[in-house]
Amino acid sequence: MSAVQSASAATVVLDEIVPARAPWSSVVAAGQVLSIVDLGGNQAVDCLLYHAHDTSERYSAPDTVAAQGSLSITTGSVLRSCEGRPLMTVVADDVGRHDTIGGACSKESNTLRYGHHTRHQHACVENFLREGAKWGLGKRDLVSNINWYMNVPVEPDGTLGIVDGLSSPGLSVSLRAEVDTLVLVSNCPQINNPCNGFDPTPVRMIVTAPTGPAAT
């Protein structure tokens, strides 16, 4: 089910456009569904999850990967916390594969990978710090993140790549909150590799709540 279909079958409680390069955050209540729509196509969306009532419990890439036996995330993937608790579940995915290991770009990593002339460029870590501060989070609260729409193939020798994404304009991924979940997003500003097609674009965030008998 696409984000548009989900929205038409439920009550829309939030519908916002996140500008290119910008951060975003919201608490998604248990049972609600967050849909992330790639408006322009080929746009990476870095994401962190926290238990809304105890942010010391947060998304854990190792627990998620180990539990599902796969490095990639798609429909049916359960995004687990450092306590092994399900935080969110992927209930729909138009793309088919999302990254768990590529991490978030930063001024430091840009400098290392692409040269000192990139140090002034805004990056995802700075977005996370700016947005996380609204919720009392700091640098020590940043952990390995999810990269929606980002294509990071793993070669047989273990080498990682960052290549053109698999998404197209209007495709979406939808996540159901299993507990009240604080979602932090950096709409990735990276322009030095093809994760955003060298042209960052806006994304749309839609939160819906179930209606009718399924909501009771």
The chain-level structural class is alpha+beta
Give me the number of helical elements: 4
Strand content: 25-35%
- Binned, the helix content reads 10-25%
Parts with pLDDT < 50 across at least 5 consecutive residues: none
Task: Please provide the count of β strands.
Answer: 10
Average per-residue pLDDT, rounded, comes to 88
Distance between the termini: 21 Å
Task: Give a summary of the structure in a few sentences.
The protein is an alpha+beta fold and 216 residues long.
Question: What report would you give on this structure?
Answer:
The protein is of the alpha+beta class and 216 residues long. It is 14% helix and 29% strand. It has four helices and ten strands, in the order H-E-E-E-E-H-E-E-H-H-E-E-E-E. It has helices spanning 3-8, 61-68, 107-114, 124-132; strands at 11-18, 23-28, 33-38, 45-51, 78-80, 86-93, 146-148, 171-177, 181-187, 203-209. It has a six-stranded antiparallel sheet. The protein has a four-stranded antiparallel sheet with strand order 2-9-4-7, with helices on one face. Strand 5 and strand 6 form a beta hairpin. The longest helix is centred in the middle third of the chain and has 9 residues, at 124-132. The model has no long low-confidence stretch (mean pLDDT 88).
Keywords for this structure?
single chain, 216 residues, alpha+beta, 6-stranded antiparallel sheet, 10 strands, globular
Present the secondary structure layout.
Blueprint lengths: L2 H6 L2 E8 L4 E6 L4 E6 L6 E7 L9 H8 L9 E3 L5 E8 L13 H8 L9 H9 L13 E3 L22 E7 L3 E7 L15 E7 L7
Antiparallel strand pairs: 1-10, 2-9, 3-8, 3-10, 4-7, 4-9, 5-6, 6-8
